[in-house]
Amino acid sequence: xxxxxxxxxxxxxxxxxxxxxxxxxxxxxxxxxxxxxxxxxxxxxxxxxxxxxxxxxxxxxxxx
Length: 64
Prior knowledge:
The chain is 11% helix and 36% strand. By secondary structure, it is mainly beta.
């Protein structure tokens, strides 16, 4: 289970088979406070329950 406090901006996460980058936490949304973007700049608004149950952090590898 992923804790919502460990989310880091611009880090890559997986949600239902899609790779998403965490953008920010929305102050105006009560039901969907976590904003993610995919590679095509589509916006996903996820609730805290969705983040805790279905979002997994992906480890990115960089070439030296």
